[in-house]
Amino acid sequence: MKPDARLTTGPIGRTLLLFSLPVLGSNILQSLNASINSIWVGRFLGEAALTATSNANIILFFLLGVVFGISMANTIMIGQAVGARDLDEARRVVGTSTTFFVGLSVLASALGYIYTPDILAAMHTPEDAAPLAVAYLRIIFLALPFMYFYNFVMMTLRGAGDSRTPFWFMLLSVALDVVLNPVLIFGVGPIPPLGIAGSALATLIAQLVSLAAMMALLYRRRYFLLLHRGQLALLRPAPAILRALVVKGLPMGLQMVVISSSAIVMMAMVNAYGSQTTAAYGVASQLWTYVQMPALAVGASVSSMVAQNVGAGLWQRVSRITRVGLLFNVAMTGALVALIYVFNRHSLGLFLGTDGVAIGIAQHINVVVLWSFILFGFTIVIFGTVRATGAVMAPLVILFLSMWVIRLPFAWALGPRIGAEAIWWSFPLGSVVSLALAIGYYRFGNWRRSHILPTAPHPAAAVGLAPDTSMGTPCEDAGEVVEETDAATPEPAAAR
């Protein structure tokens, strides 16, 4: 199976949309899976069990966040190598990344399994939930190597231009998890009831089966990035690639830390206004999770698409991909925002009683905050473009400034004067600041000169242009290049 050239030769609008939809579908499936599992545990095993899974899932989110940046660095390196048609370099990235991910996951799994009680004690897990949390989290730690490697394979495929295969196997994993949860929790036939451990075991089995099935399909298709017997030497880590994974991946992983830590502080501020306000904020946040999904999917897709075009030296397509991504964000995120505004009370009523005080507070929160996610979506798309070249520090700094220097101090300083309104209005303020800084860096920053691959081509290495309108016809031959007089240099700054 040869690499798909559509990300560098296809019509931009249609290609980006078709690439983004499976990514969006995967995000939705993951969220639905977590919600359904929580329903099984909370409704049938009790509040202590739900508390146990909540504590364990915080740790799991942190562990997955640790490798998020490294996964993105791997995706970008593979995308640039595939775009440059340097498949040997792409396989070297795969080999080094495979060894790194396997080693890291096995180490984290072993240490986590041993120190599970200590980790939960440090989190002050309630006594009635602690034994359940230990049983649940230890199985999650056993599943961690499969989760890490599963995530690595999916991100590798997306970097190479394939977002459909990860979606179908995510669908398989979620379906297995949903079906196995009640079977293993309550027991069926010869299968004994395992309680909360059954819920964790369902996740382990689902991840393992889906990963094995995906690898079997890729080998059957003779996927071009797979390593065969004669290429096992590529599993020996290449120092330059390993350094890029860590140096470029760590700042992207820290973005998750900035976001999650600011959310924890924000929740503490909200808690000060009482349970009704906290419940309203929690329910509104549930809706915001889905509102942000289109922008996150488009941003990830823009990153994969830009990485391949940077590798191919097609810099004029990069700015057009960014513009199309911004338009998609307006259309998709804007549609969800408008829908919730129209059905504000009804959508919140899925989680809250329609006659309570909390639903009125939640409605007001949505009115103030919801529209700002369109602005934040713009920022995500711009970040997707600049980080695809290897420029990863600026997005981290911008997020830190907007959340920790602007949003949180604003909410804290004005809280005594205007109450919870300071928290709600801090969201639009943070979004405006992050977007302004992102636009400034996109227009005037040096991200076009960044690189992530050790052998990355300089921007001046562009050799040609491909169709770049949404109605263009992609080349049938992936190697065909149309010579243009202005293709040897990137766009002038003034033209951007």
Number of strands: 0
Q: Would you identify the regions where 5 or more consecutive residues have pLDDT less than 50?
A: 456-496
Q: How many domains comprise the coordinates? A: 1
Q: Which structural class best describes the helix and strand composition?
A: mainly alpha
Distance between the termini: 37 Å
Q: How does the major sheet shape up?
A: none
What integer value in Å does the Rg equal? 23 Å
Portion of residues within helices: over 70%
Order of helices and strands: HHHHHHHHHHHHHHHH
Average pLDDT:
83
- In percent, how much strand structure appears in the residues? under 5%
Shape call: globular
Q: Tally the helices.
A: 16
Commentary on this structure:
The structure is a single chain. The protein is mainly α and 496 residues long. It has one domain. Helix content is 75%, strand content 0%. The chain is built from 16 helices and no strands. It has helices at 6-9, 12-45, 47-83, 87-114, 116-122, 130-159, 164-186, 196-220, 239-271, 275-312, 315-342, 344-348, 357-369, 372-387, 393-418, 421-444. Helix 15 (393-418) packs antiparallel against helix 16. The chain is globular and about 60 Å long. The model is unreliable at 456-496 (pLDDT under 50).
